[in-house]
């Protein structure tokens, strides 16, 4: 072991350009069976008077090698860290990656159109529970259990005797029990019917319910309101049509249709069509009585008997199908990205 060995080791250390390479050099000189370690081990074989000087010499070499190793190791570690930081550097000034934007579902767009119209007319817009009890969904709406109208709406029953509401009309009852007249509301939300689906019927669909109660409200007010809605949807020349119909909770009752002007009428040869939108009528006195009964049971004054009002209920799916040219109601809820993707990004 000489100064030459030291120079040779320090040179190897300085030249090592990876931590693994440095480790190999370290093993070669100061590892368990490295050169320096072996030299130290051989000290015992020397005559005692030579031992001290030789030991000091080897230790000096070892210290020089250790010092070179430590320094090189820290240099290599710093270089590795710098390289990693450089490769992982984030340029915060780069423009971000665009996220796929969602869009409003066509039903919500139609709901928004409708609620804008009714808000302008001073209506409160409310929602209500989808799980209902029989009393609010049927009885209080003048549909007793033996009434044939119950066959009109096949119902999803829950095990506890409650049901999925078959229309938004039970919210008429709930709202009147909680509020005194005069009132103007529209209710938006999902409804459920146990029926076979086809291109125009779903088992889950939506309704918009309207209710106006006050003094001296007449059928003329109802017709004017529906006509105003039609103009809001289809422009100033929109037409509406009423036909007598039967709903247990109205007297008289009617169905209404709105004339839809086909924007491509000239090309397609179909100028437009009557869109059967929903049912309406004057609130049946039995409904007011049922509301007052419920109010009385809650210790509230009877304030509805003697009032007049009108109500209507319509399906926004029908409007959306025409507006967006969707030929089958089932497309709305099949979650097919090819359908809903067409509504991505634009919010209007
Ligand atoms: C009713 O549900 C009454 N509650 C409406 C009403 C309210 C009348 C207030 C009078 C006063 P009807 O069952 O006709 O009525 O349904 C109303 C509208 O919901 C229909 O005109 C139609 O647009 C829509 N609709 C009914 N069944 C379905 C279905 N299976 N799929 C999609 N839309 C439907």
């Amino acid at each position: 072991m000489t100064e030459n060995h030291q120079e040779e080791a320090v040179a190897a250390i300085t030249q090592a350009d990876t931590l693994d390479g440095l480790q190999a050099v370290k093993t070669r000189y100061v590892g368990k069976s490295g050169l320096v370690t072996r030299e130290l081990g051989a000290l015992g074989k020397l005559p005692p008077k030579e031992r001290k000087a030789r030991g000091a010499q080897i230790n000096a070499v070892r210290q020089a090698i250790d010092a070179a190793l430590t320094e090189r190791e820290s240099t290599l570690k710093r270089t590795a860290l710098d390289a990693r930081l450089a490769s992982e550097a984030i340029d915060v000034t780069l423009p971000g990656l665009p996220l796929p934007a969602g869009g409003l579902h066509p039903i919500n767009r139609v709901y928004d159109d409708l609620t804008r119209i009714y808000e302008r007319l001073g209506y409160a817009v409310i929602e209500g529970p989808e799980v209902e009890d029989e009393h609010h969904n049927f009885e209080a709406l003048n549909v007793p259990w033996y009434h044939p109208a119950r066959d009109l709406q096949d119902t999803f029953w829950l095990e506890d005797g409650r049901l999925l509401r078959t229309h938004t009309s039970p919210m008429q009852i709930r709202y009147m029990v909680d509020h005194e007249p005069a009132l103007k509301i529209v209710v938006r939300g999902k409804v459920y019917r146990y029926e076979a689906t086809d291109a125009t019927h779903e088992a889950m669909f939506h309704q918009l319910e309207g209710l106006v109660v006050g003094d001296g409200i007449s059928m003329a007010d109802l017709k004017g309101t529906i006509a105003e809605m039609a103009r809001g949807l289809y422009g100033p020349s929109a037409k509406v049509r009423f036909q007598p119909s039967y709903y247990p909770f109205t007297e008289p009752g009617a169905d209404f249709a709105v004339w839809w002007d086909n924007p491509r009428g000239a090309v397609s040869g179909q100028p437009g069509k009557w869109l059967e939108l929903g049912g309406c009528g004057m609130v049946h006195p039995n409904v007011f009585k049922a509301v007052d009964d419920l109010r009385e049971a809650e210790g509230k004054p009877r304030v509805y008997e003697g009032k007049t009002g009108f109500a209507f209920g319509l399906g926004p799916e029908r409007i959306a199908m025409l507006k967006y040219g969707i030929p089958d109601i089932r497309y709305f809820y099949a979650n097919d990205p090819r359908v809903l993707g067409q509504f991505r990004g634009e919010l209007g």
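The two ends are 86 Å apart (CA to CA). The CA atoms of residues 262 and 272 lie 4 Å apart.
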